[in-house]
Q: What sequence folds into this?
């Protein structure tokens, strides 16, 4: 078994490998590499058996907001092993190569998304729970008459970027988007069917939704300070798209003592190297998990 970084000439074969494991299109994985300004072949690790790619792990170089600060992060994605090669420790070897890469790149933390938490726990990733309110949208008041909900247009992007920078910088776990190329290539491609809310031509908020079986999920949201339009905008957009009238709203976006919340355990974090967070020295897994106790994640940034 050969373990190494992916070679550029193997790119198409690698996307086909990922597609076969995830039952996703090869174009999806190609897009996530080609639209990523920080894409790096040295951050893609592969295991080959007689020249055939049988397992892979990719590190996405990112940064997240944490307590209002920008913290460099390595996102773990494209973790895929052909069925007949699972259970042999192959992927664990690639994950260790990814950890070594993140340490060389001086990325203090790592984040990944999974339904097999036990696999990554062996490599010192720890689960942090996302919390959601179950919000019946048919009980939400209608939008004020002065507000106009409409599809997001090309001319809205400067306003959307400005709102994102203001709003999301206060949410732990959201990706920092300080690279204009990332907006042009990745965000514009992945933020599909977006909505904006305006008053007298001024954009106050934007929103992207997704229908998930019996509920409506927020793929991304942002609003100007004191706009206070989340729920009426969410209800109006879901109604416009014919989506379920039950929404899952991240607890970080609103405060309610009357609503119970659900938890999702698909986010895991890892401390690669100690770092300062304000005046606190984050040097243990426990401190990192406490700092990232209620993460928010926008699916538009999904890797």
A:
């Amino acid at each position: 078994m050969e373990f190494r970084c992916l070679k550029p000439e193997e790119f198409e074969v690698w996307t086909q490998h990922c597609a076969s494991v995830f039952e996703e299109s090869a174009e999806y994985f190609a897009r996530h590499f080609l639209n990523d300004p920080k894409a790096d072949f040295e951050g893609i690790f592969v295991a080959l058996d007689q020249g055939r790619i049988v397992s892979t792990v990719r590190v996405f170089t990112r940064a997240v907001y944490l307590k209002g600060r920008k913290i460099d992060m390595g996102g773990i994605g494209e973790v895929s092993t052909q069925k007949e090669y699972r259970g042999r420790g192959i992927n664990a070897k690639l994950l260790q190569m990814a950890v070594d890469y993140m340490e060389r790149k001086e990325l203090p933390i790592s984040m990944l998304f999974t339904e097999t938490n036990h696999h990554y726990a062996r490599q010192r990733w720890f689960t942090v729970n996302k919390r959601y309110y179950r919000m019946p949208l048919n009980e939400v008041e209608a939008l004020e008459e002065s507000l106009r909900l409409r599809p997001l247009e090309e001319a809205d992007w400067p306003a959307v970027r400005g709102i994102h920078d203001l709003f999301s910088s206060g949410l732990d776990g959201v990706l920092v988007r300080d690279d204009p190329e990332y907006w042009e290539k990745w965000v514009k491609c992945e933020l599909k069917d977006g909505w904006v809310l305006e008053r007298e031509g001024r954009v106050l908020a934007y929103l992207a939704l997704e229908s998930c079986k019996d509920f409506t999920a927020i793929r991304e949201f942002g609003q100007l300070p004191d706009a206070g339009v989340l729920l009426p905008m969410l209800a109006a957009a879901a109604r416009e798209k014919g989506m379920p009238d039950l929404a899952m709203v991240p607890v970080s976006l609103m405060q309610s003592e009357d609503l119970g919340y659900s938890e999702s355990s698909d986010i895991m974090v890892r401390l690669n190297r100690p770092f300062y967070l304000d005046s606190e020295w984050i040097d243990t897994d426990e401190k990192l998990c406490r700092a990232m106790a209620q993460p928010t994640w926008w699916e538009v940034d999904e890797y």
In short: The CA atoms of residues 32 and 222 lie 23 Å apart. The chain has a mean pLDDT of 96.
